[in-house]
């Protein structure tokens, strides 16, 4: 079955950096477009960045120039490098296929940006 395992979150000060990882299994990762999503307390889960199977990348405006999404098909892993973090980036971060996310989500990884 589909498994998505996120890691790499933590507590960081404003302006700091984190690198998130998501290891996937149970589906054809190489041909799947993948996205990073985040959900802040009391808010809906939103798409942050997408990396298509061919390498094209999209970001939401709020993270452009600060976040970088990448993938390693051999490791079935998608990454999110987050720099210049802001308190408003605080959320639980998830990865999933995008578009058409699987109904089964991983546990996510908590990112907290606070001084």
Main attributes of the structure:
single chain, 115 residues, mainly beta, six-stranded mixed sheet, four-stranded antiparallel sheet
Account of the protein in words:
The chain has 115 residues and is mainly β. Helix content is 0%, strand content 49%. It has no helices and 10 strands. The chain is globular.
Please state the average pLDDT score: 97
Estimated structural class = mainly beta
Form type:
globular
Helix tally equals: 0
| Helix and strand sequence | EEEEEEEEEE
Helix content: under 10%
What is the number of strand segments?
10
* Poorly predicted sequence stretches spanning 5 or more consecutive residues: none
Major sheet: arrangement of strands: 2-10-9-4-5-6
Describe the structure in brief.
The protein is mainly β. The chain has no helices and ten strands.
How are the elements arranged and paired?
Elements: E1 3-7, E2 10-12, E3 18-25, E4 34-39, E5 45-51, E6 57-59, E7 67-72, E8 77-82, E9 91-97, E10 109-113
Parallel strand pairs: 2-10
Antiparallel strand pairs: 1-3, 3-8, 4-5, 4-9, 5-6, 7-8, 9-10
